[in-house]
Amino acid sequence: MHLFTRKVLKFGLIQQISKRNYSAAGTLINVTKNDATNTSILSLARPPVNGLNLELLTDFNDSLNKIVKDGSKGVIITSSLPTIFSGGLDIMEMYKPDMKRARQFWEQLQETWFTLYSLSIPTAAAINGSSPAGGCLTAMSCEYRVFVDGKHAIGLNETKLGIVAPSWFREIYISTIGYRQAELALLQGTLFLPKQALEIGLVDELAADKDEAISKCQKYIDSYARIPAVGRYATKMDFRSELIERLKKNREADTSRFLNFISQPKVQIALEAYIKSLKEKK
Ligand code: CO8
What we know:
Layout: E1 3-5, E2 18-20, E3 29-34, E4 39-44, H1 54-69, E5 74-79, H2 99-117, E6 123-127, E7 131-132, H3 134-141, E8 144-148, E9 154-155, H4 167-177, H5 179-188, H6 194-199, E10 205-207, H7 210-222, H8 229-249, H9 251-263, H10 265-280
Parallel strand pairs: 4-5, 5-6, 6-8, 7-9, 8-10
Antiparallel strand pairs: 1-2, 3-4
Protein backbone atom coordinates (compact mmCIF):
# COMPACT_ATOMS: atom_id res chain seq x y z
CA MET A 1 0.00 0.00 0.00
CA HIS A 2 1.38 3.40 -0.74
CA LEU A 3 0.19 6.81 0.29
CA PHE A 4 -0.35 9.66 -2.10
CA THR A 5 -0.73 13.04 -0.49
CA ARG A 6 -2.40 15.75 -2.51
CA LYS A 7 -0.41 18.92 -2.95
CA VAL A 8 -3.18 21.47 -2.83
CA LEU A 9 -1.60 24.25 -0.90
CA LYS A 10 -4.51 26.70 -1.07
CA PHE A 11 -6.45 24.76 1.58
CA GLY A 12 -4.68 23.89 4.79
CA LEU A 13 -6.97 20.94 5.40
CA ILE A 14 -6.29 19.25 2.12
CA GLN A 15 -2.62 18.71 2.81
CA GLN A 16 -3.48 16.19 5.52
CA ILE A 17 -5.70 14.08 3.28
CA SER A 18 -4.10 11.06 1.73
CA LYS A 19 -5.09 8.52 -0.90
CA ARG A 20 -4.54 4.81 -0.40
CA ASN A 21 -3.89 1.77 -2.47
CA TYR A 22 -3.34 3.22 -5.87
CA SER A 23 -1.76 -0.13 -6.48
CA ALA A 24 -1.69 -2.33 -9.52
CA ALA A 25 -4.99 -3.93 -10.45
CA GLY A 26 -5.56 -7.39 -9.04
CA THR A 27 -4.69 -6.85 -5.38
CA LEU A 28 -7.84 -5.21 -4.04
CA ILE A 29 -10.18 -8.20 -4.25
CA ASN A 30 -9.77 -11.67 -2.78
CA VAL A 31 -11.69 -14.45 -4.44
CA THR A 32 -11.93 -17.91 -2.91
CA LYS A 33 -13.91 -20.77 -4.32
CA ASN A 34 -15.53 -23.47 -2.25
CA ASP A 35 -15.27 -26.56 -4.46
CA ALA A 36 -17.78 -28.47 -2.37
CA THR A 37 -20.53 -25.91 -3.00
CA ASN A 38 -19.14 -24.55 -6.29
CA THR A 39 -19.66 -21.03 -4.93
CA SER A 40 -17.18 -18.15 -5.02
CA ILE A 41 -16.68 -15.70 -2.19
CA LEU A 42 -15.55 -12.29 -3.41
CA SER A 43 -14.08 -10.12 -0.63
CA LEU A 44 -13.43 -6.41 -1.07
CA ALA A 45 -9.97 -5.82 0.37
CA ARG A 46 -9.01 -2.18 0.25
CA PRO A 47 -8.28 -0.84 3.74
CA PRO A 48 -9.17 1.22 5.57
CA VAL A 49 -12.83 1.24 4.43
CA ASN A 50 -13.08 -0.46 1.01
CA GLY A 51 -13.61 2.95 -0.58
CA LEU A 52 -14.74 2.18 -4.13
CA ASN A 53 -12.15 3.92 -6.28
CA LEU A 54 -11.33 3.39 -9.96
CA GLU A 55 -8.91 0.53 -9.29
CA LEU A 56 -11.17 -1.33 -6.89
CA LEU A 57 -14.17 -0.98 -9.21
CA THR A 58 -12.09 -2.27 -12.13
CA ASP A 59 -10.90 -5.30 -10.15
CA PHE A 60 -14.43 -5.90 -8.87
CA ASN A 61 -15.80 -5.99 -12.41
CA ASP A 62 -13.02 -8.26 -13.71
CA SER A 63 -13.42 -10.63 -10.76
CA LEU A 64 -17.19 -10.97 -11.28
CA ASN A 65 -16.67 -11.80 -14.96
CA LYS A 66 -14.01 -14.39 -14.09
CA ILE A 67 -16.25 -16.00 -11.47
CA VAL A 68 -19.02 -16.49 -14.04
CA LYS A 69 -16.56 -17.82 -16.62
CA ASP A 70 -15.11 -20.39 -14.23
CA GLY A 71 -18.53 -22.00 -13.80
CA SER A 72 -19.35 -20.98 -10.22
CA LYS A 73 -23.02 -21.54 -9.47
CA GLY A 74 -23.23 -18.40 -7.29
CA VAL A 75 -21.22 -15.61 -5.71
CA ILE A 76 -21.19 -14.18 -2.20
CA ILE A 77 -19.92 -10.61 -1.89
CA THR A 78 -18.36 -9.65 1.42
CA SER A 79 -15.43 -7.71 2.87
CA SER A 80 -12.09 -8.79 4.24
CA LEU A 81 -12.21 -5.89 6.74
CA PRO A 82 -13.57 -6.85 10.17
CA THR A 83 -16.10 -4.04 10.71
CA ILE A 84 -16.75 -2.45 7.32
CA PHE A 85 -18.46 -3.87 4.25
CA SER A 86 -17.75 -0.75 2.19
CA GLY A 87 -17.56 2.94 3.08
CA GLY A 88 -19.06 3.65 -0.36
CA LEU A 89 -17.47 5.53 -3.20
CA ASP A 90 -14.00 6.81 -2.41
CA ILE A 91 -14.71 10.43 -1.58
CA MET A 92 -11.24 11.35 -2.82
CA GLU A 93 -12.37 10.51 -6.36
CA MET A 94 -14.83 13.41 -6.08
CA TYR A 95 -12.87 15.84 -3.97
CA LYS A 96 -10.75 18.31 -5.97
CA PRO A 97 -10.92 15.83 -8.84
CA ASP A 98 -8.78 15.39 -11.91
CA MET A 99 -11.69 15.55 -14.36
CA LYS A 100 -10.23 12.98 -16.77
CA ARG A 101 -9.87 10.46 -13.97
CA ALA A 102 -13.27 11.41 -12.53
CA ARG A 103 -14.88 10.52 -15.88
CA GLN A 104 -13.05 7.20 -15.99
CA PHE A 105 -14.09 6.55 -12.39
CA TRP A 106 -17.76 7.20 -13.04
CA GLU A 107 -17.83 5.17 -16.26
CA GLN A 108 -16.21 2.28 -14.40
CA LEU A 109 -18.79 2.57 -11.62
CA GLN A 110 -21.56 2.27 -14.23
CA GLU A 111 -19.79 -0.68 -15.90
CA THR A 112 -19.24 -2.57 -12.66
CA TRP A 113 -22.83 -1.97 -11.67
CA PHE A 114 -24.11 -3.28 -15.03
CA THR A 115 -22.09 -6.46 -14.44
CA LEU A 116 -23.17 -6.98 -10.83
CA TYR A 117 -26.83 -6.07 -11.27
CA SER A 118 -27.28 -8.37 -14.27
CA LEU A 119 -24.98 -11.23 -13.24
CA SER A 120 -26.31 -14.51 -14.63
CA ILE A 121 -25.61 -16.51 -11.43
CA PRO A 122 -27.23 -15.89 -8.01
CA THR A 123 -25.62 -13.07 -6.02
CA ALA A 124 -25.80 -12.59 -2.25
CA ALA A 125 -24.18 -10.01 0.03
CA ALA A 126 -22.79 -11.01 3.44
CA ILE A 127 -22.68 -7.47 4.85
CA ASN A 128 -20.24 -7.74 7.72
CA GLY A 129 -20.18 -4.09 8.78
CA SER A 130 -20.90 -0.47 7.80
CA SER A 131 -22.36 -0.08 4.37
CA PRO A 132 -23.19 3.54 3.55
CA ALA A 133 -23.94 5.01 0.10
CA GLY A 134 -22.03 3.07 -2.60
CA GLY A 135 -21.67 0.21 -0.08
CA CYS A 136 -25.45 0.09 0.20
CA LEU A 137 -25.79 0.23 -3.60
CA THR A 138 -23.41 -2.74 -3.89
CA ALA A 139 -25.46 -4.75 -1.40
CA MET A 140 -28.79 -3.75 -2.98
CA SER A 141 -27.53 -4.79 -6.41
CA CYS A 142 -27.16 -8.36 -5.16
CA GLU A 143 -30.28 -10.53 -5.07
CA TYR A 144 -30.11 -11.33 -1.36
CA ARG A 145 -28.67 -9.53 1.67
CA VAL A 146 -27.65 -10.83 5.08
CA PHE A 147 -26.52 -8.17 7.57
CA VAL A 148 -24.33 -9.01 10.56
CA ASP A 149 -25.96 -7.58 13.69
CA GLY A 150 -24.10 -4.82 15.53
CA LYS A 151 -23.71 -1.06 15.83
CA HIS A 152 -22.97 -0.41 12.16
CA ALA A 153 -25.48 0.85 9.63
CA ILE A 154 -26.57 0.75 6.00
CA GLY A 155 -28.33 3.28 3.79
CA LEU A 156 -27.94 5.99 1.18
CA ASN A 157 -26.57 8.95 3.15
CA GLU A 158 -25.53 11.14 0.19
CA THR A 159 -27.38 14.25 1.34
CA LYS A 160 -25.18 14.30 4.44
CA LEU A 161 -22.18 14.85 2.17
CA GLY A 162 -23.99 17.66 0.32
CA ILE A 163 -24.34 15.47 -2.77
CA VAL A 164 -27.27 13.71 -4.39
CA ALA A 165 -27.74 10.02 -5.00
CA PRO A 166 -27.89 9.41 -8.78
CA SER A 167 -31.24 8.37 -10.26
CA TRP A 168 -30.26 4.71 -10.56
CA PHE A 169 -29.21 4.55 -6.88
CA ARG A 170 -32.57 6.10 -6.04
CA GLU A 171 -34.55 3.70 -8.21
CA ILE A 172 -32.94 0.63 -6.66
CA TYR A 173 -33.63 2.06 -3.22
CA ILE A 174 -37.29 2.56 -4.15
CA SER A 175 -37.58 -0.94 -5.56
CA THR A 176 -36.02 -2.37 -2.38
CA ILE A 177 -37.77 -0.43 0.41
CA GLY A 178 -40.69 1.31 -1.31
CA TYR A 179 -41.27 4.86 -2.49
CA ARG A 180 -42.30 6.60 0.73
CA GLN A 181 -39.60 5.04 2.87
CA ALA A 182 -36.95 5.72 0.19
CA GLU A 183 -38.01 9.34 -0.23
CA LEU A 184 -37.74 10.08 3.48
CA ALA A 185 -34.54 8.12 3.93
CA LEU A 186 -32.88 9.80 0.95
CA LEU A 187 -33.88 13.29 2.03
CA GLN A 188 -32.55 12.70 5.52
CA GLY A 189 -29.57 10.60 4.53
CA THR A 190 -30.73 7.98 7.03
CA LEU A 191 -28.43 5.12 7.97
CA PHE A 192 -30.29 2.10 9.34
CA LEU A 193 -29.03 -0.14 12.13
CA PRO A 194 -29.36 -3.88 11.41
CA LYS A 195 -32.75 -4.42 13.10
CA GLN A 196 -34.20 -1.33 11.40
CA ALA A 197 -32.77 -2.42 8.05
CA LEU A 198 -34.46 -5.80 8.46
CA GLU A 199 -37.74 -4.18 9.46
CA ILE A 200 -37.92 -2.02 6.33
CA GLY A 201 -36.75 -4.83 4.03
CA LEU A 202 -33.41 -3.27 3.14
CA VAL A 203 -31.83 -6.58 4.15
CA ASP A 204 -33.39 -10.03 4.09
CA GLU A 205 -31.88 -11.58 7.22
CA LEU A 206 -29.59 -10.79 10.13
CA ALA A 207 -26.68 -12.93 11.28
CA ALA A 208 -24.68 -13.10 14.49
CA ASP A 209 -21.34 -12.96 12.68
CA LYS A 210 -19.73 -13.10 9.26
CA ASP A 211 -19.56 -16.91 9.16
CA GLU A 212 -23.26 -17.15 9.79
CA ALA A 213 -23.93 -14.46 7.18
CA ILE A 214 -21.94 -16.45 4.62
CA SER A 215 -23.82 -19.67 5.51
CA LYS A 216 -27.15 -17.90 5.06
CA CYS A 217 -26.01 -16.51 1.70
CA GLN A 218 -24.93 -20.02 0.71
CA LYS A 219 -28.36 -21.34 1.63
CA TYR A 220 -29.93 -18.70 -0.64
CA ILE A 221 -27.67 -19.78 -3.52
CA ASP A 222 -28.38 -23.48 -2.86
CA SER A 223 -32.12 -22.80 -3.00
CA TYR A 224 -31.79 -22.65 -6.80
CA ALA A 225 -30.50 -26.22 -7.06
CA ARG A 226 -33.73 -27.46 -8.65
CA ILE A 227 -34.63 -24.35 -10.64
CA PRO A 228 -33.43 -24.27 -14.25
CA ALA A 229 -30.88 -21.45 -14.68
CA VAL A 230 -32.45 -20.28 -17.92
CA GLY A 231 -35.85 -19.54 -16.33
CA ARG A 232 -34.22 -18.02 -13.27
CA TYR A 233 -32.05 -15.65 -15.26
CA ALA A 234 -34.83 -14.58 -17.64
CA THR A 235 -36.99 -13.77 -14.62
CA LYS A 236 -34.18 -11.82 -12.95
CA MET A 237 -33.72 -9.76 -16.10
CA ASP A 238 -37.46 -9.15 -16.40
CA PHE A 239 -37.12 -7.32 -13.10
CA ARG A 240 -33.80 -5.62 -13.80
CA SER A 241 -33.32 -4.93 -17.51
CA GLU A 242 -35.53 -1.84 -17.66
CA LEU A 243 -33.32 0.11 -15.26
CA ILE A 244 -30.15 -1.16 -16.92
CA GLU A 245 -31.38 -0.17 -20.38
CA ARG A 246 -32.45 3.25 -19.15
CA LEU A 247 -29.01 3.94 -17.70
CA LYS A 248 -27.29 2.59 -20.82
CA LYS A 249 -29.37 4.95 -22.94
CA ASN A 250 -28.62 7.91 -20.67
CA ARG A 251 -25.10 6.93 -19.73
CA GLU A 252 -23.37 10.04 -21.03
CA ALA A 253 -25.97 12.32 -19.42
CA ASP A 254 -25.50 10.50 -16.12
CA THR A 255 -21.73 10.93 -16.36
CA SER A 256 -22.03 14.62 -17.30
CA ARG A 257 -24.36 15.21 -14.40
CA PHE A 258 -21.84 13.68 -12.01
CA LEU A 259 -18.94 15.68 -13.48
CA ASN A 260 -20.92 18.93 -13.43
CA PHE A 261 -22.05 18.29 -9.90
CA ILE A 262 -18.60 17.66 -8.47
CA SER A 263 -17.26 20.70 -10.33
CA GLN A 264 -19.42 23.06 -8.30
CA PRO A 265 -17.52 25.02 -5.62
CA LYS A 266 -20.38 24.60 -3.12
CA VAL A 267 -20.23 20.82 -3.55
CA GLN A 268 -16.48 20.88 -2.98
CA ILE A 269 -16.98 22.94 0.17
CA ALA A 270 -19.54 20.42 1.46
CA LEU A 271 -17.26 17.48 0.65
CA GLU A 272 -14.35 19.18 2.39
CA ALA A 273 -16.46 19.77 5.50
CA TYR A 274 -17.56 16.12 5.46
CA ILE A 275 -13.99 14.81 5.17
CA LYS A 276 -13.04 17.11 8.02
CA SER A 277 -15.90 15.77 10.15
CA LEU A 278 -14.72 12.19 9.54
CA LYS A 279 -11.27 13.14 10.80
CA GLU A 280 -12.57 15.12 13.76
CA LYS A 281 -14.74 12.30 15.12
CA LYS A 282 -11.53 10.44 16.07
N1 CO8 B 1 -13.88 7.60 0.92
C1 CO8 B 1 -12.60 7.93 1.24
N2 CO8 B 1 -12.09 7.88 2.48
C2 CO8 B 1 -12.91 7.46 3.46
C3 CO8 B 1 -14.26 7.10 3.20
C4 CO8 B 1 -14.74 7.18 1.86
N3 CO8 B 1 -15.99 6.85 1.52
N4 CO8 B 1 -14.82 6.74 4.37
C5 CO8 B 1 -13.86 6.87 5.32
N5 CO8 B 1 -12.71 7.30 4.77
C6 CO8 B 1 -11.42 7.52 5.44
C7 CO8 B 1 -11.54 8.40 6.67
O1 CO8 B 1 -11.46 9.76 6.31
C8 CO8 B 1 -10.35 7.93 7.47
O2 CO8 B 1 -9.19 8.52 6.88
P1 CO8 B 1 -7.87 8.84 7.79
O3 CO8 B 1 -7.46 7.53 8.39
O4 CO8 B 1 -6.93 9.40 6.79
O5 CO8 B 1 -8.34 9.83 8.82
C9 CO8 B 1 -10.30 6.44 7.20
O6 CO8 B 1 -10.99 6.25 5.96
C10 CO8 B 1 -10.95 5.59 8.25
O7 CO8 B 1 -12.26 6.11 8.49
P2 CO8 B 1 -12.88 6.16 9.94
O8 CO8 B 1 -11.84 6.54 10.94
O9 CO8 B 1 -14.10 7.01 9.86
O10 CO8 B 1 -13.25 4.61 10.16
P3 CO8 B 1 -14.40 4.01 11.07
O11 CO8 B 1 -14.14 2.55 11.11
O12 CO8 B 1 -14.53 4.76 12.37
O13 CO8 B 1 -15.77 4.29 10.26
C11 CO8 B 1 -17.11 4.37 8.26
C12 CO8 B 1 -15.95 3.69 9.00
C13 CO8 B 1 -18.41 4.09 8.99
C14 CO8 B 1 -17.16 3.79 6.86
C15 CO8 B 1 -16.87 5.90 8.26
O14 CO8 B 1 -15.55 6.13 7.81
C16 CO8 B 1 -17.79 6.66 7.38
O15 CO8 B 1 -18.93 6.90 7.74
N6 CO8 B 1 -17.30 7.06 6.19
C17 CO8 B 1 -18.04 7.86 5.28
C18 CO8 B 1 -18.87 7.00 4.41
C19 CO8 B 1 -19.67 7.82 3.44
O16 CO8 B 1 -20.35 8.76 3.81
N7 CO8 B 1 -19.58 7.43 2.16
C20 CO8 B 1 -20.28 8.10 1.14
C21 CO8 B 1 -19.46 8.12 -0.12
S1 CO8 B 1 -20.39 8.83 -1.44
C22 CO8 B 1 -21.09 7.52 -2.29
O17 CO8 B 1 -20.79 6.37 -2.05
C23 CO8 B 1 -22.11 7.80 -3.36
C24 CO8 B 1 -21.83 9.06 -4.03
C25 CO8 B 1 -22.72 9.34 -5.22
C26 CO8 B 1 -22.18 10.54 -5.98
C27 CO8 B 1 -23.19 11.39 -6.59
C28 CO8 B 1 -22.64 12.76 -7.01
C29 CO8 B 1 -23.55 13.49 -7.97
